Amino acid sequence: MWISRRTDYATRAMLALTLAGGATPMRLQDLADRTAVPLSVLEQIMPVLRTAGVVRSERGRSGGYRLNHPPEKITLEAVVRLFEGQLAPIACATRKEPEPCPMMGGCSLRSVWEEIRDATIERLDRTTFADLAAGAAGPWLDPSKMELVD
Amino acid sequence: MWISRRTDYATRAMLALTLAGGATPMRLQDLADRTAVPLSVLEQIMPVLRTAGVVRSERGRSGGYRLNHPPEKITLEAVVRLFEGQLAPIACATRKEPEPCPMMGGCSLRSVWEEIRDATIERLDRTTFADLAAGAAGPWLDPSKMELVD
DNA sequence: ATGAATGTTGATAGTATCTATAAAGATTGT
DNA sequence: ACAATCTTTATAGATACTATCAACATTCAT
Predict the structure, then answer these.
(1) Most A CBs within 10 Å: which of B83, B109, B110, B141, as the mutation test of the A interface?
(2) A149 to chain B: which residues are within 8 Å by CB?
(3) Which domains are seen in chain A, by residue range?
(4) Which of A2, A33, A142, B35 has the most CB atoms at less than 10 Å from its CB?
């Protein structure tokens, strides 16, 4: 349960943008409708993706968002990392600047945490938004198939 | 960063108990010293392990804690799950009663979350405290090797 | 019996983080 | 000038996590 709502929303928005193709920019309101993400939250999330260079935006009349690179070049890892930061399950097992711990030397627990970290990162890094778009179906392609929830 | 401090502490305490052998029970105070976990937090954690049947305790004069089963029979998964609950990275990807989502049908993101869930559980389930004890070294075997932290 | 040593339980306070919303600002095109 | 759109900032509420403490219950040695 470590993927925050924001990360969930951001990845959904990215998938929707990928499926939109990018011939024309997509409005925040449309993004919200197509992904079932609150507009007010997208207002916070999208600028983060933009600042990171993952998407680009245009303002004014026919403005909106588009991917800033071909979807084959954008990994799920890049987007998740942007919102989650460190992907290790615990602070003593991060790749960069692991938090010191008195039990650090010869800790067999830490080895397991590191393996989980590596498996997680590997899985995310191996997946591009082109892959995700190719695997999408149902409500992702046809908004009328979105299910009402609660 | 989803492994909480409590889970960290609980797994450390379990490893210390495993290394202690169980011929004689181990006091909370000794557990705290050997694992660098605050005594007051262990007071909350150990009863949870006891109620779950993972450890057993004795009160009074020469009381303390011991494993309640051979360490080959206790998996890291069991202990982590006790404190973390669901191990899926996101609520829509749990094995039991996944949280409904409007984009559920044909969601390629969800497939990735499920794979990460499975890889994580598999790694934890494959590791027993006997394994962890066999791989432990440094401060785990010799308290004088514990490093001072901040 | 008494008392010390030990585990058990419950209350609490502080901190941090997450979520969602709203309001005001900046830019663009008609 | 105006409307549509993205941008930024402030804020409130909810939730969870962490650590500590105090009071209690049990056991054993004396």
Answers:
(1) B109
(2) 100-102
(3) 5-85+128-142 (1.10.10.10)
(4) B35
